[in-house]
Amino acid sequence: MSRERGEAYDTIVVGSGISGLSSALAATELGQRVLLLEKAGKLGGGTCLSYGGFWIGNNHMAEQEGEADDLEQVKTYIRFVAGGYSDEAKLTAYAERAPEALRFFERCGIRLHITRGLTDHYWDVGPGARSSGRHLDPDLTPIADAGAWRDKVFIPRDQPVEMTVEEVISWGGITDPDNWDWQIINERRRQGILGRGTAVVVQFVRELLSRGAEIRVDAGASRLLRTDGRIAGVELQNGGQILARKGVILTTGGYDSNHEMAEHLEGLPGWLTQFPDTLTGDHLVMAGEVGAQTRTIHNNFSIFLGFHVPKERPGDNILFRQASICEMLCPHTIVVNRDGRRFGDEAYFQDLVPRLREYDMKTRRHPNLPCFLIFDQQYADAFSFAYRPPRTPIPEWVARAGSVEELAGLLGIDGAGLAATVDRFNGFARAGVDEDFKRGAASWTLASAKPWMDKGEEEQLPNPRLGTLRVPPFYGIELHPSAFVSNGLLTDANAQVVHQRGLPIPGLYAVGNAAAHTEYGIGYQAGFSLGSAMTFGYLAARHMNESN
Ligand SMILES: Cc1cc2nc3c(=O)[nH]c(=O)nc-3n(C[C@H](O)[C@H](O)[C@H](O)COP(=O)(O)OP(=O)(O)OC[C@H]3O[C@@H](n4cnc5c(N)ncnc54)[C@H](O)[C@@H]3O)c2cc1C
């Protein structure tokens, strides 16, 4: 019998990202005795890499600022974004209960604010979309708030986290680090003041500790324990067993770093992870053993194209550059397939996503995977590549050549095809109209083009999303798909995990990326992930109280 035998809590939460932290805080606040388990040596998981944005429609903060929203409009928008792939009960729970969850966590001491300057992504096309009031991000938070746990919070050090989302927007957006206020960022770093996802994590850890919740790191769960058909606890990777009277909430994130599982469940060749290496799909194994159903959101739009930045020091984290919302938004870049052909609006990455899944029956291959980012020296002179400041030399691990044809040869792309594409694209850039894919027509992508328009480039660029590729050297790098996962445990509107036979498994809940995103279906909208995780963490804890 292992040493933890006999330990018992009301609730065990497995995983310490936003879904685990919000579940644990809600359960603690509602009077449950909670144990939060984390497999990694530090807390926060993928949430610490995030921008920290929450999407919560019809919230009281917007109302207080004179921007009252409308619940029906919120539902209409989520339904549009979900594209017919949502569960109406879960969608309704997210829309209706998120404002309540926000108030609840505000009373607990969590401090978020409205993010000014960020519109809904489908502002120009989506029914129910709004130009402001639904995006929130955390107030700046000192790491000291985590008290004795300050060294146990995962703080990514390869990119700055010491700012609010609103500041990044006002400083020119994520594609323009040149324009950020580095004096402020560096001073905050000196003082240990955090923003983005790390601030979210520190705030929740602070509130959990102040309420006496128990947290353990290096404590991975490996199996669920059952008594009389009910989930009654967990077995740890070290063999220890801990009991939970009310149940277990699985908040283990996705399976992004389990390469085999990810390639199998996503069906996209060339997969790369953008999340920590502890996200290995343990929830699918543990809940699978007790008969849980899973659900795949086919055509999930949350697929980014990008590449890994090689580690500079041993022990550095994996660093995935989301080219989809950085390089691909900027002028002087295109994305092409092996034939050298463009296949969508690069500046609106969701336009490319369905085309990544295309499969050619005759050639027996994905025509648009692998695909490649191609850019020229004009891009390198003006914009950031792979998190480096603009104008720093493009690193040696990126292919380059004096001509487009030569570059194509280095990357295994059809040279004549690429030359013809660049020629045609340059014509579009000069005219300001992309006749093939309407790049630059969506208002969301135009809004974030403001910084270089302000630099005066708009005179040469009639459309700020287009720019010629004509100044050598020409550069190219293979892009890989990476996603906020498409598959997860099927849960109901209370976050209860559903059994293969269709009924909830008593005592088992799943929240965040461990659960299938049936509340918002195929759609990608910044802030849905954190916003819905916080909501269903709250609802899971409430349901545990009400049903036990
Ligand atoms: C660059 C970037 C920016 C982003 N920005 C945003 C944004 O602004 N807004 C938004 O909504 N989304 C954003 N996202 C997505 C968001 O970060 C994730 O979807 C979200 O953090 C998932 O939260 P989670 O709690 O489900 O999982 P995670 O935060 O990944 O946490 C899961 C935790 O579970 C632990 N774990 C795994 N297995 C076990 C086990 N067996 N036992 C114990 N612990 C285990 C892991 O170690 C990890 O700590 C962004 C993502 C990236 C990469």
CATH top level of the largest domain is: Alpha Beta
Strand content: 15-25%
Please tell me how large the radius of gyration is: 23 Å
How many strands appear in the DSSP assignment? Answer: 21
Give the N-to-C terminal Cα separation.
Answer: 28 Å
Q: Which small-molecule species are bound to the chains here?
A: flavin-adenine dinucleotide
CATH architecture of the largest domain: 3-Layer(bba) Sandwich
The unreliable regions are none
In CATH terms, what is the fold-level topology of the largest domain? FAD/NAD(P)-binding domain
What level of helicity do the residues show?
A: 25-40%
Structure description:
With 548 residues, this protein is of the alpha+beta class. It has 2 domains: 8-222 and 485-547, FAD/NAD(P)-binding domain, CATH 3.50.50.60; 305-482, Alpha-Beta Complex (Flavocytochrome C3, Chain A, domain 1), CATH 3.90.700. 30% of the residues lie in helices and 18% in strands. The strands form 5 sheets. Strands 1, 2, 8, 9, 10, 11, 20 and 21 form an 8-stranded mixed beta sheet that branches. The structure holds flavin-adenine dinucleotide. Flavin-adenine dinucleotide (FAD) binds next to helix 1 and helix 16.
Summarize this structure briefly.
The chain has helices at residues 18-29, 60-64, 71-82, 88-108, 165-170, 182-191, 196-210, 259-266, 282-289, 353-356, 377-382, 404-411, 415-431, 443-447, 450-454, 528-547, and strands spanning 8-14, 34-37, 54-55, 112-114, 135-138, 141-142, 193-194, 214-216, 221-227, 230-236, 241-250, 294-296, 303-309, 319-321, 333-337, 371-375, 399-401, 474-483, 487-489, 496-498, 504-510. It has 548 residues and is α+β, with helices and mostly antiparallel strands.
